[in-house]
Design a protein that fits this description.
3 helices, mainly beta
Length: about 210
């Protein structure tokens, strides 16, 4: 399983390591009941479902992350970036989830970087910047709808606190889009599962006094 697929699986199963979680958008979108959300969390990754019976290829969502590879300054101002998701499939996606988080591929790192970086997203309803909730695995859209051929661009921003440890000089920002898909086995069985696309950028962390 490659890194992108591993990330999708982690978000899907809501078992991201603490290092991958970030101060992030708050709440689920209106219309996503607790029961429905919990049911979606239990769905396996489509890649995992297809492991023994063939390969799964995600052909519905395309995600492009832009302006996310600039430096992040300890104690600096907010820095904005964008993520554009396009439904390249032939059917509407009625279960779109979006999440954002920062992480470092370092084992046993303590403290983890997510404690020192906050994310916000611009609400499509009122245009206000809204904190991303750590307790929601970095989600800022839940149960969204994306018609076939339609694109949507999400405005995001992040900021690092001044006490972010000095040894943390780099990190990865990931924006994930996921949806409920279905995998058909050779014997005709159909299993609901989660799939999606990840945009990932490595960022450099600097001090305010650095050029």
């Amino acid at each position: 399983m490659n890194l992108r697929r591993a990330l999708i699986t982690a978000v899907t199963m809501a078992v991201l390591p603490t290092a991958a979680l970030v101060a992030a958008p708050g709440a689920y979108a209106a219309g996503a009941g607790a029961g429905a959300g919990a049911a979606r969390e239990q769905l396996p990754s489509c890649y995992d479902v297809a492991t023994t019976d063939g390969s799964y290829e995600q052909k519905t969502l395309k995600l492009v992350q832009t302006d996310a590879d600039g430096p992040v300054t300890r104690g600096g101002d907010w820095r904005s970036f964008r993520a554009t998701v396009t439904n390249i499939g032939s059917r509407p996606v009625k279960t779109l989830d979006m999440s954002v988080y920062i992480w470092r591929q370092v084992e046993d790192e303590d403290p983890v970087i997510g404690r020192f970086v906050a994310f916000e997203y611009k609400s499509g309803k009122n245009g206000k910047w809204t904190p991303v909730d750590r307790g929601a695995s970095g989600r800022f859209v839940t149960n969204g709808v994306l018609k076939a051929g339609q694109s949507v661009t999400y405005q995001l921003r992040l900021r690092a606190t001044a006490d972010l440890p000095a040894h943390m000089r780099w990190a990865d920002i990931s924006v994930d889009s996921s949806f409920v898909d279905h995998y058909r086995f050779p014997d005709g069985r159909v299993v609901a599962c989660r799939a999606g696309e990840t945009g990932q950028n490595k960022v450099r962390i600097t001090d305010a006094t650095m050029p």
